[in-house]
Amino acid sequence: MAVHQPIKFNSIIADPDVQTRMRLKQATSSVGQFGEVYQSTTLGEASAKIEQEKHWDVVFISNKFTEGEVTDFILRAKQHKGGQDAAFIRVLKSKDQQNSTIAAGMLQGIDGFLFEPYSVDQLVDITTLSAKIKSERSDTRQKLAMELILSDVIKQLDLVAFLKSAGFEVTRSATRLKDMCLSLQGASSGEMLEVYHEIAIKNFGEAPLPKPMFQAKQYAGVSSRVKKKMEEKLIQEVEKEMRSNVDLKL
To answer: pLDDT by residue (tens digit) across 147-159?
Structure first.
């Protein structure tokens, strides 16, 4: 009778920060699910390793790299045998655990997200899940990404409208709304444009009424200092809800 061999993930860690890179390396070393783990300080080093055509299962990408660098790296990696079957996992800070951030990463080709600080169990779970997600079709991933971004856009639009109507400063929140919308440009062009229209009409049409904190209130006479604190509190509440929605959908 054949003995079942446990899955071993051959992995690459790309991170210029020695402390966070070693922390992840130590976490992978503490469990039996990981095989060879190669460390690189740049995406160029990681690309060179992938181009040697050794089979890699997982590539962990630090948050220190820009979105453009990550997109180019993944595109190059998928052109080589060593990276064609790899799952790409972005390592982010907990504060970045929001729909729009997750969706933007998915559009880059990211298969999973590991949020610091993480446990060994979370590391193993997201690695296993990412390997499964890797097999999903590209258009399905794009549709999910659109859903996630539009969910955040609607909440952010409610926030901007309320802040403006109540006399708050809206520059910061409006800029964030613009950035969210910009992340949709690549996903809603070409063959996916019709799909985007369908999803947008559905999401905006079915959007719930604003929560009580967005209902009309009077802030006349409130000092600018108090108003600033109230604005920060509202923004934090919206961002907290966005992070919780990521947990529900992914």
So the answer is: 878 888 888 888 8
Three-state DSSP class for 180? helix
Question: What is the predicted pLDDT for the residue at 4?
Answer: 39
CA atoms within 13 A on the CB side of 137: 3
pLDDT at 3 over 50: no
pLDDT tens-digit map of 166-217 = 777 788 888 888 888 877 776 556 667 777 888 888 888 888 777 665 544 5
DSSP secondary structure, 195-231, as one string: HHHHHHHHHHHTPPPPPGGGS----TT--HHHHHHHH
The whole-model pTM stands at 0.59
Residue with structure tokens 């080709």?
109
Judged against a pLDDT cut of 90, whether residue 45 lies above it is answered with yes
Q: Return d(Cα 162, Cα 159) in angstroms, integer.
A: 5
User: Closest by alpha carbon to 59, among 127, 2, 7?
Assistant: 127
Task: Report which of 103, 112, 189, 105 is spatially closest to residue 148, judged by C-alpha positions.
Answer: 103
- Cα distances (Å, whole numbers) of residue 141 to 108, 113, 145, 192: 11, 14, 6, 12
What is the distance between the alpha carbons of residues 173 and 179, in angstroms, rounded to a whole number? 10
Query: Each residue of 126-137: b (16+ CB within 10 Å) or e?
Result: bbbebbebbeee
State the sign of the Cα–Cα–Cα–Cα dihedral 49, 66, 144, 128: positive
Helix (DSSP H) and strand (DSSP E) numbers for the chain: 10, 5
Please name which of 93, 14, 7 lies closest in space to residue 57, comparing C-alpha atoms.
7
The span from the CA of 59 to the CA of 143, in Å, is: 24
